[in-house]
Design a protein that fits this description.
Layout: H1 2-16, H2 20-53, H3 59-70, H4 74-85, H5 100-124, H6 128-136, H7 141-151, H8 153-168, H9 172-178, H10 188-198, H11 201-230
Helix pairs in contact: 1-11, 2-5, 2-8, 2-11, 3-5, 4-5, 4-9, 5-8, 5-9, 6-7, 8-11, 10-11
């Protein structure tokens, strides 16, 4: 118990004086997870909408892949991305291994299925007469999908919030493809893992508090937006 209190006091001290290394790690986490979530939304929301509204050959397989991706172990994603980006891999010449770009790719791959799967559920829960009415009025497939997303916007925002939570809390894949390099690829989750292994619980707790605060703030903003839209 004493260790916890000492860690909390030390963490508050670090945060109060604006510890530069801690803030750098937090800033990189926001950048990496924010971009990964943005890409996951750009890909996952249209994909989920398509799976909910359209019928096409291979739809069952695509749906199964999305459902599998929602529970895909991050270390498997890290392994796959590492093989592709390794110096002898297909994309090795790009020199992306152990860079923030590789971490963004890994987090995108674990977050996109969340956005797609939850969006599919949200749009699929709409009254099917809604989309049929749009088609009768001459709306294109693109327009029908857009209107469906607008109608289910509160739930879609929750899907994006869940994707962000998945991305920013991810550690295994980011550690494998980023290498946890100081001032380069060290983010909140990988830094916490490192500090705990060193016995530096004060900094680990400080980083943990920042991680929780970021996740809470982003989710609160998106959920509040969802409620505002619903009203």
């Amino acid at each position: 118990m004493e260790l916890i209190w000492q860690g909390l006091l030390g963490a508050l001290s670090l945060l109060a004086r604006g510890d530069a290394p801690t803030l750098r790690v937090a800033a990189l986490s926001i950048m990496v997870s924010g971009l990964a979530t943005g890409l996951a939304g750009l890909v996952g929301v249209p994909l989920g909408t398509t799976l909910a509204l359209r019928r096409f050959r291979g739809q069952a397989i695509a749906t199964s892949l999305v459902n599998t991706g929602m529970g895909l172990p991050p270390v498997v994603v890290g392994l796959g991305v590492s093989i592709l980006l390794w110096r002898s891999g297909i994309f090795g010449p790009l020199g992306l291994i152990y860079t923030p770009a590789a971490m963004i790719l890994a987090q995108f791959l674990v977050a996109a299925p969340i956005a797609a799967g939850l969006t599919r559920s949200a749009v699929g829960g709409l009254n099917m007469e809604f989309s049929e009415a749009l088609r009768v009025d001459g709306a294109s497939e693109w327009r029908a999908g857009w209107e469906a997303v607008r109608a289910a916007r509160p739930q879609v925002l929750v899907a994006v919030a869940a994707a962000f939570g998945r991305a920013i809390s991810e550690v295994g894949a980011s550690l494998m493809v980023g290498g946890n390099i100081l001032n380069s690829t060290r983010i909140l989750t990988t830094a916490i893992t490192l500090e705990v292994s060193r016995g530096e619980f004060e900094r680990a707790i400080a980083l943990g508090l920042i991680l929780l605060a970021l996740a809470f703030i982003v989710n609160a903003v998106l959920v509040r937006g969802a409620r505002t839209v619903a009203w």
